[in-house]
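Recall the central idea of this unit: under ordinary conditions, the amino acid sequence of a chain determines the structure it adopts. In this exercise we apply that idea directly, starting from the sequence alone.
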Amino acid sequence: MTLFSTAVKNMKGNFRNYLIYFVSMMFSVVIYHTFVSLQYSTDIQASIALSKNVEVTFKTASFVLILFVFIFIWFSNSFFTRKRKKEVALYSLLGVRKRSIGKMLFYENLIISTIVLAAGILIGTLLSKMFGMLLLKLLGTTAEIGFHVSGSAILNTTLVFAIIILITSIQGYRLIYRFKLIDLFQADKQAESVPKASPLLALLAAILLATGYVFISLSFDSESDLMRNYGVAFVGITLGTYLLFRCLTVFLLRLAQKNKARYYRGLSVVGTSQLLFRMRGNVGTLTIIALLSAFTLLATDIAFSQYYTNTKHAEQTSPFSYMHLSQGQAFDEQVNRIIAADNKHAITAAIDIPVIKSSGRTSSGAVLPERYSEEDDKPVKIISTTTYGVIAKALHLERAVNPAKGEAVAVKTMYTDYSLSDYKKEKLTLELPTQSWELSFSDLLEDRILSWTFPDFVIVISDELYHELEQLSTEVLYKAYKVEGESSTVETATKLMRLDRAEKAGLTSYYHEYKMGLEDTGIGTFVAVFLGLVFLAATGSILYFKQLTEAHSDKERYTILRKIGVTRKEIRASILKQSLFIFGLPLLLGITHSIVVVNAMSKLFSNLVDVNFTVPVLFSTALYVMIYLFYYILTVTSFNKIVNS
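Accordingly, the structure predicted from this sequence is:
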Protein backbone atom coordinates (compact mmCIF):
# COMPACT_ATOMS: atom_id res chain seq x y z
CA MET A 1 0.00 0.00 0.00
CA THR A 2 1.46 3.37 -1.03
CA LEU A 3 1.39 6.56 1.02
CA PHE A 4 -1.00 8.09 -1.48
CA SER A 5 -3.50 5.21 -1.21
CA THR A 6 -3.21 5.34 2.59
CA ALA A 7 -3.99 9.05 2.48
CA VAL A 8 -7.08 8.37 0.35
CA LYS A 9 -8.21 5.64 2.77
CA ASN A 10 -7.72 7.92 5.79
CA MET A 11 -9.65 10.68 4.08
CA LYS A 12 -12.59 8.34 3.44
CA GLY A 13 -12.51 7.10 7.03
CA ASN A 14 -12.55 10.65 8.42
CA PHE A 15 -15.07 12.01 5.92
CA ARG A 16 -17.64 12.88 8.59
CA ASN A 17 -15.10 14.97 10.51
CA TYR A 18 -13.96 16.65 7.30
CA LEU A 19 -17.50 17.41 6.06
CA ILE A 20 -17.91 20.82 7.72
CA TYR A 21 -14.39 21.75 6.61
CA PHE A 22 -15.37 20.69 3.09
CA VAL A 23 -18.53 22.79 3.11
CA SER A 24 -16.97 25.90 4.65
CA MET A 25 -13.93 25.91 2.40
CA MET A 26 -16.05 25.15 -0.68
CA PHE A 27 -18.33 28.06 0.21
CA SER A 28 -15.26 30.30 0.39
CA VAL A 29 -14.10 29.15 -3.05
CA VAL A 30 -17.59 29.69 -4.49
CA ILE A 31 -17.81 33.24 -3.13
CA TYR A 32 -14.29 34.16 -4.24
CA HIS A 33 -14.87 32.73 -7.70
CA THR A 34 -18.16 34.64 -7.86
CA PHE A 35 -16.44 37.93 -7.03
CA VAL A 36 -13.78 37.32 -9.65
CA SER A 37 -16.34 36.23 -12.26
CA LEU A 38 -18.44 39.36 -11.69
CA GLN A 39 -15.31 41.47 -11.87
CA TYR A 40 -14.50 40.04 -15.32
CA SER A 41 -18.13 39.98 -16.54
CA THR A 42 -18.74 42.34 -19.47
CA ASP A 43 -22.52 42.16 -18.86
CA ILE A 44 -22.08 43.42 -15.29
CA GLN A 45 -19.68 46.15 -16.36
CA ALA A 46 -22.12 47.32 -19.04
CA SER A 47 -25.04 47.34 -16.60
CA ILE A 48 -23.25 49.41 -13.97
CA ALA A 49 -23.34 52.78 -15.67
CA LEU A 50 -22.35 55.31 -13.01
CA SER A 51 -20.38 53.72 -10.19
CA LYS A 52 -16.61 53.89 -10.52
CA ASN A 53 -15.96 51.70 -7.47
CA VAL A 54 -16.91 48.29 -8.86
CA GLU A 55 -13.45 47.00 -9.66
CA VAL A 56 -11.89 48.44 -6.50
CA THR A 57 -14.70 47.03 -4.33
CA PHE A 58 -14.43 43.51 -5.74
CA LYS A 59 -10.62 43.53 -5.59
CA THR A 60 -10.68 44.67 -1.96
CA ALA A 61 -13.31 42.07 -1.07
CA SER A 62 -11.31 39.36 -2.84
CA PHE A 63 -8.14 40.31 -0.92
CA VAL A 64 -9.97 40.25 2.43
CA LEU A 65 -11.49 36.88 1.53
CA ILE A 66 -8.11 35.43 0.54
CA LEU A 67 -6.56 36.55 3.82
CA PHE A 68 -9.42 35.18 5.89
CA VAL A 69 -9.60 31.86 4.04
CA PHE A 70 -5.86 31.39 4.48
CA ILE A 71 -6.18 31.90 8.25
CA PHE A 72 -9.23 29.63 8.39
CA ILE A 73 -7.51 26.78 6.52
CA TRP A 74 -4.39 27.21 8.65
CA PHE A 75 -6.43 26.87 11.88
CA SER A 76 -8.44 23.97 10.48
CA ASN A 77 -5.31 22.02 9.60
CA SER A 78 -3.93 22.63 13.08
CA PHE A 79 -7.11 21.24 14.64
CA PHE A 80 -7.08 18.15 12.43
CA THR A 81 -3.41 17.49 13.14
CA ARG A 82 -3.93 17.80 16.90
CA LYS A 83 -6.89 15.43 16.74
CA ARG A 84 -4.80 12.80 14.96
CA LYS A 85 -1.70 12.91 17.18
CA LYS A 86 -2.27 9.41 18.50
CA GLU A 87 -2.74 8.06 14.97
CA VAL A 88 0.56 9.66 13.95
CA ALA A 89 2.22 8.15 17.02
CA LEU A 90 1.04 4.66 16.01
CA TYR A 91 2.56 5.11 12.56
CA SER A 92 5.83 6.13 14.20
CA LEU A 93 5.69 3.14 16.57
CA LEU A 94 5.23 0.82 13.58
CA GLY A 95 8.45 2.13 12.09
CA VAL A 96 7.10 4.64 9.59
CA ARG A 97 9.49 7.54 9.29
CA LYS A 98 8.29 11.05 10.09
CA ARG A 99 9.14 12.08 6.57
CA SER A 100 6.73 9.47 5.20
CA ILE A 101 4.02 10.42 7.71
CA GLY A 102 4.46 14.06 6.73
CA LYS A 103 4.08 13.14 3.07
CA MET A 104 0.91 11.21 3.85
CA LEU A 105 -0.63 14.22 5.65
CA PHE A 106 0.58 16.43 2.81
CA TYR A 107 -1.20 14.17 0.29
CA GLU A 108 -4.39 14.14 2.38
CA ASN A 109 -4.60 17.93 2.56
CA LEU A 110 -3.70 18.19 -1.12
CA ILE A 111 -6.42 15.73 -2.17
CA ILE A 112 -9.10 17.35 -0.02
CA SER A 113 -8.18 20.87 -1.11
CA THR A 114 -8.04 19.92 -4.78
CA ILE A 115 -11.50 18.32 -4.62
CA VAL A 116 -12.88 21.35 -2.78
CA LEU A 117 -11.26 23.75 -5.26
CA ALA A 118 -12.59 21.89 -8.30
CA ALA A 119 -16.09 21.55 -6.80
CA GLY A 120 -16.09 25.20 -5.66
CA ILE A 121 -15.13 26.49 -9.10
CA LEU A 122 -17.73 24.26 -10.76
CA ILE A 123 -20.50 25.35 -8.39
CA GLY A 124 -19.39 28.99 -8.59
CA THR A 125 -19.47 28.86 -12.38
CA LEU A 126 -22.94 27.28 -12.42
CA LEU A 127 -24.24 29.85 -9.92
CA SER A 128 -22.47 32.85 -11.44
CA LYS A 129 -25.53 33.88 -13.45
CA MET A 130 -27.76 33.69 -10.38
CA PHE A 131 -25.31 35.77 -8.32
CA GLY A 132 -25.03 38.26 -11.18
CA MET A 133 -28.81 38.57 -11.39
CA LEU A 134 -28.97 39.08 -7.63
CA LEU A 135 -26.40 41.87 -7.88
CA LEU A 136 -28.29 43.56 -10.72
CA LYS A 137 -31.48 43.26 -8.67
CA LEU A 138 -29.80 45.13 -5.82
CA LEU A 139 -28.65 47.76 -8.31
CA GLY A 140 -32.18 48.23 -9.63
CA THR A 141 -31.15 47.19 -13.16
CA THR A 142 -33.44 45.18 -15.42
CA ALA A 143 -30.70 44.20 -17.87
CA GLU A 144 -30.32 40.54 -18.82
CA ILE A 145 -27.15 38.66 -17.95
CA GLY A 146 -26.11 35.59 -19.89
CA PHE A 147 -24.37 32.44 -18.70
CA HIS A 148 -20.65 32.85 -19.26
CA VAL A 149 -17.66 30.73 -18.27
CA SER A 150 -14.77 33.06 -17.52
CA GLY A 151 -11.39 31.47 -18.16
CA SER A 152 -9.66 34.41 -16.44
CA ALA A 153 -11.80 33.93 -13.32
CA ILE A 154 -11.08 30.18 -13.22
CA LEU A 155 -7.35 30.78 -13.65
CA ASN A 156 -7.35 33.49 -10.97
CA THR A 157 -9.22 31.31 -8.47
CA THR A 158 -7.08 28.26 -9.19
CA LEU A 159 -3.84 30.17 -8.80
CA VAL A 160 -4.83 31.88 -5.53
CA PHE A 161 -6.15 28.76 -3.83
CA ALA A 162 -3.33 26.59 -5.18
CA ILE A 163 -0.87 28.84 -3.34
CA ILE A 164 -2.96 28.69 -0.14
CA ILE A 165 -3.30 24.90 -0.40
CA LEU A 166 0.42 24.46 -1.00
CA ILE A 167 1.38 26.59 2.01
CA THR A 168 -1.07 24.87 4.37
CA SER A 169 -0.04 21.43 3.08
CA ILE A 170 3.59 22.22 3.83
CA GLN A 171 2.46 23.36 7.29
CA GLY A 172 0.86 19.95 7.93
CA TYR A 173 4.07 18.27 6.78
CA ARG A 174 6.23 20.37 9.13
CA LEU A 175 3.97 19.84 12.17
CA ILE A 176 5.06 16.19 12.36
CA TYR A 177 8.60 17.20 13.30
CA ARG A 178 7.42 19.40 16.18
CA PHE A 179 6.23 16.53 18.43
CA LYS A 180 8.03 13.71 20.20
CA LEU A 181 6.55 10.21 20.18
CA ILE A 182 5.69 10.30 23.90
CA ASP A 183 4.01 13.68 23.49
CA LEU A 184 1.83 12.33 20.71
CA PHE A 185 0.67 9.37 22.80
CA GLN A 186 0.01 11.51 25.87
CA ALA A 187 -1.68 14.37 23.95
CA ASP A 188 -5.18 13.50 25.13
CA LYS A 189 -4.03 13.02 28.71
CA GLN A 190 -2.21 16.32 29.04
CA ALA A 191 -4.64 18.43 31.01
CA GLU A 192 -4.59 22.14 30.54
CA SER A 193 -3.73 24.13 33.64
CA VAL A 194 -6.62 25.89 35.33
CA PRO A 195 -6.27 29.65 34.77
CA LYS A 196 -6.14 31.78 37.87
CA ALA A 197 -9.02 34.10 38.64
CA SER A 198 -7.75 37.67 38.94
CA PRO A 199 -10.37 40.07 40.31
CA LEU A 200 -8.13 43.00 39.35
CA LEU A 201 -7.83 41.94 35.70
CA ALA A 202 -11.54 41.05 35.62
CA LEU A 203 -12.32 44.59 36.80
CA LEU A 204 -9.89 45.96 34.21
CA ALA A 205 -11.75 44.04 31.47
CA ALA A 206 -15.03 45.64 32.50
CA ILE A 207 -13.38 49.10 32.69
CA LEU A 208 -11.79 48.74 29.24
CA LEU A 209 -15.06 47.68 27.63
CA ALA A 210 -16.93 50.52 29.34
CA THR A 211 -14.24 52.99 28.23
CA GLY A 212 -14.47 51.75 24.64
CA TYR A 213 -18.26 52.07 24.67
CA VAL A 214 -18.12 55.58 26.13
CA PHE A 215 -15.50 56.89 23.70
CA ILE A 216 -17.25 55.47 20.62
CA SER A 217 -20.35 57.41 21.69
CA LEU A 218 -18.63 60.75 22.41
CA SER A 219 -19.36 63.73 20.18
CA PHE A 220 -16.48 65.39 18.35
CA ASP A 221 -15.66 68.80 16.92
CA SER A 222 -12.87 67.89 14.54
CA GLU A 223 -11.37 65.01 12.59
CA SER A 224 -8.61 64.63 15.20
CA ASP A 225 -11.25 64.25 17.93
CA LEU A 226 -12.98 61.58 15.85
CA MET A 227 -9.73 59.64 15.32
CA ARG A 228 -8.92 59.89 19.03
CA ASN A 229 -12.36 58.66 20.10
CA TYR A 230 -12.41 55.76 17.66
CA GLY A 231 -8.78 54.85 18.41
CA VAL A 232 -9.39 54.67 22.16
CA ALA A 233 -12.63 52.77 21.56
CA PHE A 234 -10.89 50.20 19.32
CA VAL A 235 -8.11 49.55 21.84
CA GLY A 236 -10.54 49.43 24.77
CA ILE A 237 -12.98 47.04 23.10
CA THR A 238 -10.23 44.75 21.72
CA LEU A 239 -8.25 44.46 24.96
CA GLY A 240 -11.42 44.37 27.02
CA THR A 241 -12.74 41.45 24.95
CA TYR A 242 -9.49 39.52 25.39
CA LEU A 243 -9.37 40.13 29.15
CA LEU A 244 -13.04 39.25 29.46
CA PHE A 245 -12.37 35.76 28.12
CA ARG A 246 -8.99 35.54 29.83
CA CYS A 247 -10.01 36.72 33.30
CA LEU A 248 -13.62 37.83 33.72
CA THR A 249 -15.14 34.53 32.54
CA VAL A 250 -12.75 32.62 34.79
CA PHE A 251 -13.69 34.88 37.69
CA LEU A 252 -17.40 34.27 37.05
CA LEU A 253 -16.89 30.50 36.72
CA ARG A 254 -14.98 30.54 40.01
CA LEU A 255 -17.89 32.36 41.62
CA ALA A 256 -20.22 29.68 40.23
CA GLN A 257 -18.09 27.06 41.97
CA LYS A 258 -18.58 28.82 45.28
CA ASN A 259 -22.36 28.51 44.97
CA LYS A 260 -22.31 25.00 46.45
CA ALA A 261 -26.05 24.34 46.21
CA ARG A 262 -26.08 24.97 42.47
CA TYR A 263 -22.55 23.74 41.76
CA TYR A 264 -23.18 20.21 43.08
CA ARG A 265 -26.58 19.88 41.42
CA GLY A 266 -26.62 17.34 38.59
CA LEU A 267 -23.58 17.60 36.31
CA SER A 268 -22.93 21.30 36.99
CA VAL A 269 -19.67 20.37 38.67
CA VAL A 270 -18.55 18.57 35.49
CA GLY A 271 -19.67 21.29 33.10
CA THR A 272 -18.17 24.16 35.10
CA SER A 273 -14.89 22.31 35.64
CA GLN A 274 -14.66 21.42 31.94
CA LEU A 275 -15.17 25.04 30.97
CA LEU A 276 -12.54 26.19 33.45
CA PHE A 277 -9.95 23.66 32.28
CA ARG A 278 -10.58 24.48 28.61
CA MET A 279 -10.82 28.25 28.97
CA ARG A 280 -7.09 28.95 28.62
CA GLY A 281 -6.99 27.16 25.26
CA ASN A 282 -10.18 28.85 24.09
CA VAL A 283 -9.30 32.46 24.95
CA GLY A 284 -7.70 33.34 21.60
CA THR A 285 -10.39 31.60 19.54
CA LEU A 286 -13.29 33.16 21.46
CA THR A 287 -11.73 36.62 21.33
CA ILE A 288 -11.21 36.46 17.56
CA ILE A 289 -14.73 35.14 16.98
CA ALA A 290 -16.32 37.82 19.16
CA LEU A 291 -14.42 40.63 17.42
CA LEU A 292 -14.97 39.14 13.97
CA SER A 293 -18.69 38.74 14.69
CA ALA A 294 -18.86 42.39 15.75
CA PHE A 295 -17.00 43.53 12.64
CA THR A 296 -19.15 41.38 10.34
CA LEU A 297 -22.41 42.60 11.85
CA LEU A 298 -21.19 46.20 11.80
CA ALA A 299 -20.17 46.07 8.13
CA THR A 300 -23.44 44.38 7.16
CA ASP A 301 -25.50 46.86 9.18
CA ILE A 302 -23.80 49.87 7.58
CA ALA A 303 -24.10 48.45 4.06
CA PHE A 304 -27.77 47.53 4.54
CA SER A 305 -28.62 50.88 6.11
CA GLN A 306 -27.06 52.89 3.30
CA TYR A 307 -28.87 50.80 0.70
CA TYR A 308 -32.10 51.00 2.68
CA THR A 309 -32.02 54.84 2.82
CA ASN A 310 -30.61 55.55 -0.64
CA THR A 311 -33.86 57.14 -1.82
CA LYS A 312 -33.84 59.63 1.06
CA HIS A 313 -30.21 60.50 0.36
CA ALA A 314 -30.97 61.13 -3.32
CA GLU A 315 -33.88 63.40 -2.35
CA GLN A 316 -31.58 65.43 -0.13
CA THR A 317 -28.85 65.73 -2.75
CA SER A 318 -31.22 66.51 -5.62
CA PRO A 319 -34.71 67.53 -4.40
CA PHE A 320 -35.85 68.40 -7.95
CA SER A 321 -35.92 65.93 -10.82
CA TYR A 322 -33.75 68.31 -12.85
CA MET A 323 -32.10 71.60 -12.00
CA HIS A 324 -29.61 73.87 -13.77
CA LEU A 325 -28.36 77.43 -13.88
CA SER A 326 -29.87 79.43 -16.69
CA GLN A 327 -27.44 79.70 -19.61
CA GLY A 328 -29.53 81.85 -21.88
CA GLN A 329 -32.76 81.32 -23.77
CA ALA A 330 -31.41 78.87 -26.36
CA PHE A 331 -29.94 76.42 -23.83
CA ASP A 332 -32.89 76.73 -21.42
CA GLU A 333 -35.38 75.98 -24.21
CA GLN A 334 -33.31 73.01 -25.36
CA VAL A 335 -33.43 71.54 -21.85
CA ASN A 336 -37.16 72.21 -21.61
CA ARG A 337 -37.83 70.47 -24.95
CA ILE A 338 -35.95 67.33 -23.92
CA ILE A 339 -37.82 67.10 -20.60
CA ALA A 340 -41.21 67.86 -22.16
CA ALA A 341 -40.66 65.25 -24.89
CA ASP A 342 -40.51 62.48 -22.26
CA ASN A 343 -44.14 61.35 -22.33
CA LYS A 344 -43.53 58.62 -19.77
CA HIS A 345 -42.55 61.16 -17.10
CA ALA A 346 -44.98 64.06 -17.15
CA ILE A 347 -43.85 67.43 -15.74
CA THR A 348 -45.63 68.24 -12.46
CA ALA A 349 -43.77 71.49 -11.77
CA ALA A 350 -41.48 73.79 -13.76
CA ILE A 351 -40.30 76.82 -11.81
CA ASP A 352 -37.70 79.57 -11.86
CA ILE A 353 -35.67 80.10 -8.69
CA PRO A 354 -33.93 83.50 -8.49
CA VAL A 355 -31.00 83.43 -6.08
CA ILE A 356 -28.66 86.15 -4.84
CA LYS A 357 -25.12 85.06 -4.05
CA SER A 358 -23.28 87.04 -1.41
CA SER A 359 -20.11 86.94 0.61
CA GLY A 360 -20.66 86.62 4.33
CA ARG A 361 -19.44 85.43 7.68
CA THR A 362 -20.86 84.27 10.99
CA SER A 363 -19.76 85.49 14.40
CA SER A 364 -17.83 82.35 15.37
CA GLY A 365 -17.40 80.77 11.94
CA ALA A 366 -18.95 77.50 13.09
CA VAL A 367 -21.92 77.15 10.74
CA LEU A 368 -20.20 79.11 7.94
CA PRO A 369 -16.54 78.03 8.04
CA GLU A 370 -13.83 80.14 6.41
CA ARG A 371 -13.05 77.34 3.96
CA TYR A 372 -16.39 78.08 2.27
CA SER A 373 -15.13 81.54 1.32
CA GLU A 374 -11.84 80.06 0.16
CA GLU A 375 -13.74 77.86 -2.27
CA ASP A 376 -16.17 80.58 -3.40
CA ASP A 377 -15.94 84.29 -2.62
CA LYS A 378 -19.75 84.36 -2.50
CA PRO A 379 -20.68 81.23 -0.52
CA VAL A 380 -24.10 82.40 0.73
CA LYS A 381 -27.13 81.61 -1.48
CA ILE A 382 -30.11 83.83 -0.63
CA ILE A 383 -33.76 83.10 -1.48
CA SER A 384 -36.80 85.24 -0.81
CA THR A 385 -39.81 84.10 1.22
CA THR A 386 -42.02 84.20 -1.87
CA THR A 387 -39.61 82.05 -3.87
CA TYR A 388 -39.45 79.57 -1.00
CA GLY A 389 -43.26 79.34 -1.12
CA VAL A 390 -43.11 78.43 -4.83
CA ILE A 391 -40.43 75.80 -4.10
CA ALA A 392 -42.41 74.39 -1.17
CA LYS A 393 -45.51 74.01 -3.37
CA ALA A 394 -43.52 72.24 -6.12
CA LEU A 395 -41.88 69.86 -3.64
CA HIS A 396 -45.00 69.41 -1.49
CA LEU A 397 -43.27 70.78 1.60
CA GLU A 398 -45.67 71.62 4.42
CA ARG A 399 -43.29 73.88 6.33
CA ALA A 400 -44.02 77.63 5.98
CA VAL A 401 -41.56 80.38 6.93
CA ASN A 402 -42.00 84.11 7.53
CA PRO A 403 -38.74 85.70 8.71
CA ALA A 404 -38.68 89.32 9.83
CA LYS A 405 -36.50 91.82 7.97
CA GLY A 406 -33.53 91.35 10.30
CA GLU A 407 -33.83 87.56 10.40
CA ALA A 408 -32.82 84.63 8.25
CA VAL A 409 -34.11 81.07 8.07
CA ALA A 410 -31.23 78.63 7.52
CA VAL A 411 -31.46 75.53 5.35
CA LYS A 412 -29.57 72.82 7.19
CA THR A 413 -26.18 72.28 5.61
CA MET A 414 -25.94 68.76 4.26
CA TYR A 415 -23.48 66.32 5.91
CA THR A 416 -23.60 68.24 9.20
CA ASP A 417 -25.39 67.61 12.48
CA TYR A 418 -26.20 71.24 13.22
CA SER A 419 -29.40 72.05 15.10
CA LEU A 420 -31.35 75.29 15.47
CA SER A 421 -29.51 76.06 18.71
CA ASP A 422 -26.19 76.03 16.80
CA TYR A 423 -27.52 78.66 14.39
CA LYS A 424 -29.13 80.81 17.07
CA LYS A 425 -25.74 81.25 18.69
CA GLU A 426 -24.52 82.94 15.51
CA LYS A 427 -24.98 86.31 13.83
CA LEU A 428 -24.75 86.31 10.04
CA THR A 429 -23.16 89.29 8.29
CA LEU A 430 -24.00 89.66 4.60
CA GLU A 431 -21.40 91.72 2.76
CA LEU A 432 -22.17 93.39 -0.56
CA PRO A 433 -19.80 95.84 -2.29
CA THR A 434 -21.42 98.97 -0.81
CA GLN A 435 -23.31 97.78 2.25
CA SER A 436 -23.55 95.02 4.83
CA TRP A 437 -26.40 93.55 6.91
CA GLU A 438 -26.34 91.66 10.19
CA LEU A 439 -29.01 88.99 10.57
CA SER A 440 -30.01 86.59 13.32
CA PHE A 441 -31.25 83.07 12.64
CA SER A 442 -34.89 82.52 13.53
CA ASP A 443 -35.54 79.02 12.20
CA LEU A 444 -33.95 75.98 10.56
CA LEU A 445 -35.31 74.05 7.57
CA GLU A 446 -34.46 70.34 7.46
CA ASP A 447 -35.74 69.80 3.90
CA ARG A 448 -33.48 70.59 0.99
CA ILE A 449 -34.64 73.19 -1.55
CA LEU A 450 -31.64 73.36 -3.93
CA SER A 451 -29.41 70.65 -5.36
CA TRP A 452 -26.28 70.12 -3.31
CA THR A 453 -23.21 72.07 -4.36
CA PHE A 454 -20.21 73.18 -2.36
CA PRO A 455 -20.23 75.62 -0.61
CA ASP A 456 -23.59 74.55 0.75
CA PHE A 457 -25.02 77.51 2.68
CA VAL A 458 -28.58 78.56 1.82
CA ILE A 459 -30.82 81.03 3.68
CA VAL A 460 -34.37 82.36 3.24
CA ILE A 461 -34.99 86.04 4.03
CA SER A 462 -37.98 88.37 3.91
CA ASP A 463 -39.16 89.73 0.55
CA GLU A 464 -38.48 93.29 1.74
CA LEU A 465 -34.84 92.61 2.53
CA TYR A 466 -34.44 90.54 -0.63
CA HIS A 467 -35.57 93.48 -2.78
CA GLU A 468 -33.00 95.72 -1.06
CA LEU A 469 -30.23 93.21 -1.80
CA GLU A 470 -31.50 92.83 -5.35
CA GLN A 471 -30.84 96.50 -6.02
CA LEU A 472 -27.17 96.11 -5.11
CA SER A 473 -26.33 92.74 -6.68
CA THR A 474 -27.07 90.48 -9.63
CA GLU A 475 -29.35 87.49 -9.39
CA VAL A 476 -28.62 84.07 -10.80
CA LEU A 477 -31.54 82.03 -12.06
CA TYR A 478 -32.04 78.33 -11.42
CA LYS A 479 -34.44 76.39 -13.66
CA ALA A 480 -36.05 73.48 -11.79
CA TYR A 481 -38.35 70.66 -12.90
CA LYS A 482 -40.29 68.02 -11.03
CA VAL A 483 -41.56 65.01 -13.01
CA GLU A 484 -43.44 61.80 -12.31
CA GLY A 485 -41.43 58.59 -11.81
CA GLU A 486 -38.14 60.49 -11.49
CA SER A 487 -36.20 57.38 -10.41
CA SER A 488 -36.59 55.84 -13.91
CA THR A 489 -35.81 58.81 -16.18
CA VAL A 490 -32.68 57.16 -17.53
CA GLU A 491 -33.01 58.25 -21.18
CA THR A 492 -33.95 61.88 -20.48
CA ALA A 493 -31.32 62.30 -17.76
CA THR A 494 -28.65 60.84 -20.05
CA LYS A 495 -29.61 63.17 -22.91
CA LEU A 496 -29.44 66.20 -20.63
CA MET A 497 -26.06 65.23 -19.21
CA ARG A 498 -24.67 64.95 -22.75
CA LEU A 499 -25.52 68.55 -23.65
CA ASP A 500 -22.50 70.69 -24.44
CA ARG A 501 -23.09 73.22 -21.68
CA ALA A 502 -24.49 70.81 -19.07
CA GLU A 503 -21.38 70.91 -16.87
CA LYS A 504 -21.13 74.71 -17.01
CA ALA A 505 -24.82 74.96 -16.10
CA GLY A 506 -24.29 72.67 -13.10
CA LEU A 507 -27.09 70.45 -14.40
CA THR A 508 -28.20 67.85 -11.88
CA SER A 509 -30.77 65.07 -12.05
CA TYR A 510 -32.44 63.05 -9.34
CA TYR A 511 -32.02 59.88 -11.43
CA HIS A 512 -28.23 60.11 -11.55
CA GLU A 513 -27.97 60.70 -7.80
CA TYR A 514 -30.41 57.87 -7.08
CA LYS A 515 -28.80 55.45 -9.54
CA MET A 516 -25.23 56.21 -8.46
CA GLY A 517 -26.17 55.73 -4.81
CA LEU A 518 -28.02 52.52 -5.63
CA GLU A 519 -25.02 51.10 -7.48
CA ASP A 520 -22.49 52.03 -4.80
CA THR A 521 -24.62 50.86 -1.86
CA GLY A 522 -25.91 47.81 -3.76
CA ILE A 523 -22.39 46.59 -4.50
CA GLY A 524 -21.40 47.28 -0.89
CA THR A 525 -24.39 45.34 0.41
CA PHE A 526 -23.71 42.41 -1.94
CA VAL A 527 -20.08 42.19 -0.84
CA ALA A 528 -20.84 42.69 2.88
CA VAL A 529 -23.52 39.99 2.94
CA PHE A 530 -21.47 37.34 1.16
CA LEU A 531 -18.26 38.10 3.05
CA GLY A 532 -20.29 38.01 6.24
CA LEU A 533 -21.65 34.59 5.34
CA VAL A 534 -18.13 33.31 4.65
CA PHE A 535 -16.87 34.70 7.97
CA LEU A 536 -19.84 33.19 9.77
CA ALA A 537 -19.37 29.78 8.14
CA ALA A 538 -15.66 29.80 8.94
CA THR A 539 -16.01 30.93 12.57
CA GLY A 540 -18.82 28.43 13.12
CA SER A 541 -16.60 25.72 11.65
CA ILE A 542 -13.67 26.69 13.88
CA LEU A 543 -15.84 26.38 16.98
CA TYR A 544 -17.17 23.08 15.62
CA PHE A 545 -13.65 21.72 15.12
CA LYS A 546 -12.56 22.98 18.52
CA GLN A 547 -15.47 21.34 20.32
CA LEU A 548 -15.10 18.05 18.45
CA THR A 549 -11.39 17.96 19.23
CA GLU A 550 -12.26 18.33 22.91
CA ALA A 551 -14.99 15.70 22.55
CA HIS A 552 -12.48 13.10 21.34
CA SER A 553 -10.14 14.04 24.22
CA ASP A 554 -12.94 13.72 26.81
CA LYS A 555 -14.56 10.57 25.44
CA GLU A 556 -13.06 8.30 28.11
CA ARG A 557 -14.12 10.69 30.90
CA TYR A 558 -17.74 10.59 29.78
CA THR A 559 -17.56 6.79 29.54
CA ILE A 560 -16.54 6.71 33.21
CA LEU A 561 -19.45 9.01 34.09
CA ARG A 562 -21.91 6.62 32.45
CA LYS A 563 -20.38 3.67 34.31
CA ILE A 564 -20.95 5.36 37.67
CA GLY A 565 -24.63 5.93 36.91
CA VAL A 566 -24.90 9.22 35.03
CA THR A 567 -27.66 8.96 32.43
CA ARG A 568 -27.23 9.82 28.78
CA LYS A 569 -29.90 12.51 29.15
CA GLU A 570 -27.88 14.22 31.90
CA ILE A 571 -24.73 14.05 29.79
CA ARG A 572 -26.54 15.58 26.82
CA ALA A 573 -27.88 18.38 29.03
CA SER A 574 -24.34 19.07 30.24
CA ILE A 575 -23.06 19.16 26.64
CA LEU A 576 -25.86 21.59 25.72
CA LYS A 577 -24.87 23.97 28.53
CA GLN A 578 -21.12 23.81 27.82
CA SER A 579 -21.58 24.35 24.09
CA LEU A 580 -24.04 27.17 24.74
CA PHE A 581 -21.39 28.92 26.84
CA ILE A 582 -18.72 28.50 24.13
CA PHE A 583 -21.03 29.52 21.27
CA GLY A 584 -23.22 32.01 23.09
CA LEU A 585 -20.64 34.15 24.86
CA PRO A 586 -18.66 35.35 21.79
CA LEU A 587 -21.90 35.75 19.82
CA LEU A 588 -23.53 37.78 22.60
CA LEU A 589 -20.43 39.91 23.02
CA GLY A 590 -20.08 40.42 19.26
CA ILE A 591 -23.73 41.50 18.98
CA THR A 592 -23.31 43.86 21.95
CA HIS A 593 -20.18 45.42 20.41
CA SER A 594 -21.92 45.90 17.06
CA ILE A 595 -25.07 47.41 18.59
CA VAL A 596 -23.07 49.89 20.67
CA VAL A 597 -20.95 50.96 17.69
CA VAL A 598 -23.94 51.09 15.33
CA ASN A 599 -25.90 53.14 17.87
CA ALA A 600 -23.03 55.63 18.07
CA MET A 601 -22.64 55.75 14.30
CA SER A 602 -26.39 56.03 13.76
CA LYS A 603 -26.42 59.30 15.68
CA LEU A 604 -23.72 60.58 13.37
CA PHE A 605 -25.08 59.24 10.07
CA SER A 606 -28.74 59.96 10.81
CA ASN A 607 -27.86 63.58 11.44
CA LEU A 608 -25.76 63.77 8.31
CA VAL A 609 -27.83 61.87 5.74
CA ASP A 610 -30.85 60.54 7.64
CA VAL A 611 -29.69 56.91 7.61
CA ASN A 612 -32.05 54.43 9.26
CA PHE A 613 -30.28 51.57 11.08
CA THR A 614 -33.20 49.90 12.87
CA VAL A 615 -34.47 47.55 10.16
CA PRO A 616 -30.97 46.58 8.86
CA VAL A 617 -29.71 45.85 12.38
CA LEU A 618 -32.70 43.68 13.26
CA PHE A 619 -32.54 41.78 9.97
CA SER A 620 -28.78 41.12 9.92
CA THR A 621 -28.63 40.20 13.63
CA ALA A 622 -31.56 37.79 13.31
CA LEU A 623 -30.00 36.14 10.23
CA TYR A 624 -26.61 35.90 11.96
CA VAL A 625 -28.13 34.28 15.07
CA MET A 626 -30.12 31.77 13.01
CA ILE A 627 -27.07 30.55 11.09
CA TYR A 628 -24.99 30.48 14.26
CA LEU A 629 -27.75 28.42 15.90
CA PHE A 630 -27.40 25.86 13.10
CA TYR A 631 -23.70 25.40 13.94
CA TYR A 632 -24.55 25.16 17.64
CA ILE A 633 -27.10 22.40 17.07
CA LEU A 634 -24.75 20.57 14.70
CA THR A 635 -21.91 20.78 17.23
CA VAL A 636 -24.05 19.55 20.12
CA THR A 637 -25.33 16.64 18.03
CA SER A 638 -21.83 15.60 16.89
CA PHE A 639 -20.34 16.07 20.37
CA ASN A 640 -23.10 13.91 21.88
CA LYS A 641 -22.56 11.13 19.31
CA ILE A 642 -18.85 11.01 20.12
CA VAL A 643 -19.04 10.91 23.93
CA ASN A 644 -22.54 9.60 24.61
CA SER A 645 -23.14 6.82 22.09
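Strands lie at 322-325, 347-362, 380-384, 407-411, 427-431, 436-445, 457-461, 475-483, 508-509.
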